[in-house]
Amino acid sequence: MNVKCLFDLNGRVVLLTGAGGLLGEQYADGLSQAGAHVILADINYSKVKLIEKTLKLKYNTKPFAVKFDITDKKSIKKMIDLILRKYSKIDVLINNAVDQGNAKLRTTDFIDLPQSSWDNAIKINLTGMFLCCQEVGKVMLKQKKGVIINISSTYGLVAPDQRIYGKSGQNSAIFYAATKSAVLNFTRYLASYWHNKGIRVNTLTPGGVEKGQDPEFIKKYSKKTMLGRMAKKNEYVGAIIFLASDASSYMTGSNLIIDGGWTAW
Ligand SMILES: NC(=O)c1ccc[n+]([C@@H]2O[C@H](COP(=O)([O-])OP(=O)(O)OC[C@H]3O[C@@H](n4cnc5c(N)ncnc54)[C@H](O)[C@@H]3O)[C@@H](O)[C@H]2O)c1
């Protein structure tokens, strides 16, 4: 057993959805450092194109920016065709794209929340993950090998503590809690369904990341965690490398919670 080899992603093809977002960009950098060719998939093409350029300059890998809409099966199929033509395989799928709702929606009273916001979140956070797993699953079944990582949130495990948000605008809407909690059992189901097909499926559950929010909110949030602070944006990269690599070869149907201890006391 060689520890470096365990975490090595040299030559692995990783499809990362929502790659243009706050955490996606961090994952893309970390995965590239570990040697992976990262497919930077996002509806925000200009953002992922920039990330592609940076990665090409920094690392000796072949990143690839792709515009796609996770709610559109045709768009997913088209992207997978492109990837297969370029790389002939997909080793890892990370379902990271999300709709968290804008600040207005996140602070709207539950009673007044428009149905369209609920429908949108279901489409992006759940149907999108379902479609990606179906289409990438076909490829992984043929390969008899693959790793899927679905992203949940602290708010998929416990309710947001309504006492800490005040006027910060950092509230999270019910569609976020509902979809992120569904990710957990979606993962278990699929891990069980493909248990003897060489495909491992796990969830990563991150906690809140500090990104210049209202100081009063940061203080209250930090108090909720055992470590007394919010996460830095690069603090989930190690977990992504672990879950994507052979270091987690005996892990499937699981949920890796990294939340500074918020849900543990
Ligand atoms: N940031 C946090 O504090 C935090 C905490 C816990 C969990 N998470 C989870 O981590 C993941 C990443 O979070 P983030 O903060 O980086 O999110 P983000 O909002 O910064 O990025 C999400 C990305 O998804 C893309 N996207 C949205 N709709 C899409 C669509 N229809 N098709 C394709 N792409 C689309 C967006 O363009 C964006 O680049 C999410 O699943 C989120 O639930 C984040």
Give the tags.
binds nicotinamide-adenine-dinucleotide, Rossmann fold, alpha/beta, 10 helices, 265 residues
Write up this protein.
- The structure is a single chain.
- The two termini are 36 Å apart.
- The longest helix has 29 residues, at 115-143.
- The chain is α/β, with parallel strands linked by helices and 265 residues long.
- Helix 3 links the parallel strand 2 (37-42) and strand 3 (64-67).
- The chain has a seven-stranded parallel sheet with strand order 3-2-1-4-5-6-7, sandwiched between helices.
- The protein has one domain (3-264): 3-Layer(aba) Sandwich (Rossmann fold), CATH 3.40.50.
- Helix 4 (73-87) runs parallel beside helix 6 and helix 6 (115-143) packs parallel to helix 8.
- It is globular and about 50 Å long.
- It is built from ten helices and seven strands.
- The mean pLDDT is 97.
- Bound molecules: nicotinamide-adenine-dinucleotide.
What ligand species are in this complex? nicotinamide-adenine-dinucleotide
What class do helices, strands and sheet pairing give? alpha/beta
Distance between the first and last residues' Cα: 36 Å
CATH fold node name: Rossmann fold
Q: CATH-wise, what's the superfamily?
A: NAD(P)-binding Rossmann-like Domain
Secondary-structure element series: HEHEHEHEHHEHHEHHE
Question: What is the domain total for the residues?
Answer: 1
* Unreliable residue runs: none
Assess the beta-strand content as a share of residues: 5-15%
Second-tier CATH architecture: 3-Layer(aba) Sandwich
Q: Label the overall shape.
A: globular
Largest sheet: 7 strands, parallel
What is the strand arrangement across the widest sheet? Answer: 3-2-1-4-5-6-7
- Average pLDDT confidence is 97
CATH class type:
Alpha Beta
What share of residues is helical?
Answer: 40-55%
Number of helices: 10
Oligomeric form of this entry? single chain
Q: How many strands appear in the DSSP assignment?
A: 7
